[in-house]
Amino acid sequence: MSDRLVEPSWLEEHLDDPNVVILEFNWTGTESYDKWHIPGAHGFFWKDFLWDDTIRDFPSPELFAKRCGELGISNDTTVVCYGDPVQFGTYGWWVFTYLGHRDVRLLSGARVLWEKEGRPKSTEVPAKPAPVTYTPPAGRNDAMRVRFTEIVDLLDELKAGEASVLLDHRSPEEYRGERVNMIGAPDVGAERAGRIPGSRHLYFDEFLNDDMTFRAPDELRALLEARGATPDKDVISYCRLSHRATLAYFTMTELLGYESVRSYDGSWTEWGSLVGVPIEK
Predict the structure, then answer these.
(1) Residue 66 class from Cβ within 10 Å (0-12 exposed, 13-18 middle, 19+ buried)?
(2) What is the domain extent for residue 184?
(3) At what angle do helices 87-98 and 243-250 cross, to 10 degrees?
(4) Which region, left, alpha or beta, applies to residue 110 given φ > 0 means left and ψ of -120 to 50 means alpha?
(5) How many structural domains compose the chain?
(6) Taking the model in full, what pTM does it have?
(7) How large is the average pLDDT for residues 211-216?
(8) Which of 37, 63, 169, 208 would be 204's cystine partner, CB 3.0–4.6 Å?
(9) 33-42: b (≥16 Cβ within 10 Å) or e
(10) 110 and 158 co-located in one domain
(11) For 165-180, what is the mean pLDDT?
(12) Is the pLDDT of residue 2 over 80?
């Protein structure tokens, strides 16, 4: 198991550690953060920190450095991410890792396990930290990411599934083309419903226990291998906006040691609205 996954007991012991900064990323705003959060955690609507607010992409190195420095995050700071829901924590972990931060970790079980274990909560917004200098990383970890043009070029290979496997981590209804968003959320996010041709379904929820911790490695490995996603293949994960795909990415790379995994961050919101690309239902 990776040291990038930290247990609640570890985080509670480091709540007063000046070299640890805790970030909570939320799906729809900061309602859950305002209700309660881990003491000292900074809460964000996920796009406000993890996206550039003028283009549909991640922050530039300079913007990322500015946002980190304003939170007291230096290049040597240990950043711990968690989310509501859990996949927004893995998305934060993925973006920080992709943008080149050296020490970013994920809280096991997110809010669910923290509350279940009766650990301390707070409603107090932490004081604004003194800004620090954050040197923009030299480059992005582009091996973590795949663009739609590459998937178009790989479609025949992905359908065969011999060297490369495309995993769809959305709900069964989304995968079958009945919805473009999960049940319980507005059915918006793309012009078409369906799936990328050749993709194999593995709902992200299958990776998790009821307390939002990851299932045992042998169980995780069996889920992936049943879809042909073995460690010797190139694996691409996608969902609707790539939050659920980053949870799968973390599972494969950090918990199971897969070495060739990429996330298609454009995911269905991009593919389902592109002109001239095929879909399946």
Answers:
(1) middle
(2) 145-271
(3) 70
(4) left
(5) 2
(6) 0.97
(7) 98
(8) 169
(9) beeebbbbbb
(10) no
(11) 98
(12) no
